[in-house]
Each structure stands twice: as C-alpha cells, then as structure tokens.
Design brief:
2 strands
C-alpha cells in the first residue's frame, strides 16, 4: 500500500500536480481496488476538475467526481451487464419498457 501511495505521489509530482493528503489517500485506495493505471489516469482528470473550480490543489471532491465519471474495467462490465437489454443486439433488437406500464413513474425506464 505504501509503495502504491509513493508511486501515485511521484506521478503527481512529475505532472506538477498538487494533491491534498486526503486526495492521495483516496487515490491509493482506488489504486488498490481498481489498479495503478486507472488511479494514475484519475489524477489527470481530477486535475481538470480542480482547475474548473479554480483550485491549485486536487482535492478529495475532485477525485470522487472523476471516479464517478470514468469507470474502471470492473464497473464498466457491471454496467453493461445491468443494462444490456437496453442496448441494440446484433439482430437489431432492443427493449424499451417503462415503469408506467406496471403503475410506476412514467419517466423511469426499466
């Protein structure tokens, strides 16, 4: 874990990015769960988010937002599996049903 944290800190330093200690800790956790490559990519996207809010330091809120916007491979597979019926199949089939049919909210697509 300390090695991963050090690698991410060095990566940020090489890119001239200032990370808050909490942001680095969260990146380290993400790196453990999703891989070093994904965590190092999150650094770059989080920097853009921090710049947008006119901050010179990447904070934990930037890391969280970036994590929610860009899926790692495991979460991508889970997303596709959960929503595969909404995608168009090789045969051109797609299923769009609404919850309103079952008495639910007409704006909800199931």
């Amino acid at each position: 874990m300390e090695d991963l944290k050090e690698i991410l800190a060095i990566r940020a330093q090489e890119e001239e990015i200032d990370l808050s200690p909490d942001a680095l800790a969260l990146l380290t956790k993400i790196g453990q769960e999703s891989g070093l490559r994904y965590a190092s990519n999150i650094i770059a996207t989080s920097t853009l988010l921090s710049q947008k809010r006119k901050s010179k330091e990447v904070g934990i809120e930037d890391i969280k937002r970036s994590y929610s916007l860009f899926y790692d491979p495991a979460r991508s597979v889970k997303f596709v599996n959960e929503f595969e019926k909404r995608f168009i199949s090789d045969a051109g089939n797609v299923s769009f049903t609404t919850a309103a049919v079952n008495g639910g909210d007409p704006m909800e697509v199931s």
